[in-house]
Structures
1.
Amino acid sequence: MLVNATAMLQSAEKGHYGIGAFNTNNLEWATAILDAAEELQSPVIIQCTSGAAKWQTSFRVVADIVKDLVEDKGITVPVALHLDHGSYDAALECIKAGFTSVMYDGSHEPDFETNLKRTAEIVKLAHSKGISVEAEVGGIGGTEDGVTSAGELADPEQCKAIADLGVDFLACGIGNIHGIYPADWQGLSFQRLQEIKALTGDLPLVLHGGTGIPVDQIQKAISLGISKINVNTDLQLVFAAATRKYIEEGKDQQGKGYDPRKVLKPGREAIVARTEELIKEFGSDGKGWN
Ligand SMILES: [Zn+2]
């Protein structure tokens, strides 16, 4: 069932488990993520960047694909369709297009006041339509859709000011970055996470850049108040590896191995398998309606 992400993340925060937010790129991706979540009876967030929506034509097409899949596959677990790192305009567009949740990332605005003001506007509009809102404080390092930031630790006071606007969950930098982590990465700052949590109370917090963080650090972060873990690069890597193996083994040149359904199948199955592993690591398996 397609729902907003508020109740599922509040349950995760109370129950000390995490919910995976997996980025979709197309029909194959959305299908695979839903199959994994349904198999493990886990709530799930499918999210889409503006770039991935453009690839699929529009946010409306993404919303229609996910809505129809949830309905026609008879998915019984709660599914939220979320905009990942949206600009102000993208958030407005997704609210119209049928998304059940949006992230307005105001961390790139010229100043914190602009982030506050625009987040408040998005919260008001989204909530009037039952749509949940994620905001961001402090840049998260790495590059996502061409947006790069220095990867600072979020300021706890700024986190509280944004939390007080009534956002439903909050992304805050705690040393995490997007993409693949460099060899000399210092790890997550649990101290900063605890400082933020102390000021934001039971607000679910979001860990971006979930690919390549050691499992023990992710699980410790979940125990300290992270409720949503964003995963994008990880599924791209397993899809590419499985597809490469199929081609390198020459299977596309055997019989009708060139059939696109055959070419895409190993990658799709790899996404299902990896998503299931991650759901178990985050502890949301069996939490479908908790
Ligand atoms: Zn992110």
2.
Amino acid sequence: MSFILFRITENIGLMRRLWTTFERILRCTPQAGRIFLAGSLICLGQTQSQGADTQVSSSWYKGVVHAHANWGVPQLPTTSPDVVVRWYREHNYNFVSVTDLNYYTPTEGLKALFDAPGRFLVLPGIEPSKDPIQPGNKIVDTIGIGIKGPVDFPTGDTVATVLDSEAKAIRRAGGLPIAAHPNLTYALTAADLIASDKTSEPRFFEVWNTEPGMNNLGGGGKPSTEQIWDEVLSAGRVMYAVAVDDSHHFYEFVSSRQTGSPLSNPGRAWIQVRARELSVPSLLEAMNRGDFYASTGVVLSSYAATPVAIRIGLSDESRDLGWSLPGANPQLYRTEFIGKGGDVLKRDDSLHPEYEFKGNELYVRARITNSDGQVAWTQPFFPK
Ligand SMILES: [Zn+2]
């Protein structure tokens, strides 16, 4: 009897899994291409409603949009841009942007050396910055990626006007502006972000910057970058988030025996962009439609957002250094679906977290935390 029950239970489980797979195939087609990787189905292609090019299959590309060769910064090690680009290429990233302060790094030579069709791309970049703004010595910087050349020096004498001038100058240069490290000197408020870069949607900002002293989590009465994000979104402004290294140190790395000054090393935070191809226009197009996520280590097996539901796939493959036997030390997750005001609308601890829209949501975004404390942030989806 117990054997029969077991078989029935097993078969129900199997049927459920088959149905889930079939349902996912239905969701992936006909809009999207699809591939099978290591036995798991990955739904590819654009499923968000913003600017979808649904007939062409897409791939995920991993990259960093904020990295420094420190040109003209006396207190930091001068680094040749090829060292920066080489590090990311040799660590299996697909793209990187060298974003020096007020300096456009020419990319022709770098591209000749490092670009590899479909595998690696040097993305032109810059980080416009102005002297600290009073009161409070606020540092207001904006990353510009995909620019076609140098960017005008920022103007203005308030946080809001400098932020706006940086974004507009980057857009004039053909690039995509990303408000950098909002909590460095606690410079940016939600109101500043809402008011700036208004001529184009969406807005972009850094929800996570791994350089020491960026105060991502806030505290002491200052909001976290995620709280700032939800405040902007709750006002109805579409803003997408990136995670970045803001790397400055490529010659010296933190080690367990080192107690020196803080370093900003590469390899700690990035974005995964789902694009038709690995090219500047294609990456910017995907980012503009919100088809990417930010991560400090969590990698999604699948992601689909439609006006019906957000569905995510995760892998429980162990992350340890090889200590455990198969299945003994799975990676676990907590997924929180977050809506207006930063409210957690649903928690889902499964490997296939999903949120079905009820019809009254302004937006929903997901924060996925793994059992090692790493995080992925998906972009907000506005169902209407
Ligand atoms: Zn920077």
